[in-house]
Design brief:
Blueprint lengths: L5 H5 L4 E11 L4 H8 L5 E3 L15 E6 L8 H12 L3 H6 L3 E10 L14 H6 L6 E4 L2 H6 L6
Parallel strand pairs: 4-5
Antiparallel strand pairs: 1-3, 1-4, 2-3
Length: about 150
């Protein structure tokens, strides 16, 4: 077992959340989506564009909207903000020939905690008929402190 330095022990826990509506497809009407939703996307690209000059080209068009909420705010608040933009346009979004999902993220340096999502914040998934998914990233502090893997 490794000993932790006083600095590591004093490191405060952090919790970060995000929620992004993602629309992907071929020949997406990005300008029309922007007009219908009523806000600029957080990210958009066209098939063949590149993130950086040496990166691989994107395989589809995309239009993304990330909730403009501080990352330390609970995931339910992020999802409610996306729902505020999406709710009036559910039928339009479902009519698009596109893949739609809501990418949810959770990051923390505390491997011994969790979070919850309030039921009303899940409405966006039901309305768009998409599954709830979550990307979880926990920094490796626990394995470092234990000196061995936590899962065998």
């Amino acid at each position: 077992m490794q000993n932790s330095s006083p600095d590591e022990e004093a490191e405060p826990s952090y919790f970060a959340y995000s929620a992004t509506l993602r629309i992907h497809g071929n020949s997406l009407p990005n300008e029309e989506i922007t007009r219908r939703i009523g806000t600029q996307p957080s990210h958009q690209h066209r098939k063949g564009d590149r993130r950086r000059p040496n990166s691989r080209p994107y395989l589809t068009d995309a239009w993304h909207l990330t909730a403009a909420i501080p990352e330390e705010t609970e995931l339910s608040v992020h999802l409610r903000e996306l729902w505020r933009w999406v709710q009036p346009h559910v039928e339009y979004l479902r009519s698009l020939e596109a893949e739609i999902d809501v990418f949810c993220g959770y990051r923390s340096n505390n491997g011994a905690s969790g979070f919850r999502v309030e039921p009303d914040a899940l409405e966006i998934f039901r309305a768009l008929n998409i599954p709830f998914g979550l990307s979880v990233i926990v920094d490796s502090w626990l394995a470092q402190r234990l000196g061995e893997p936590t899962i065998q």
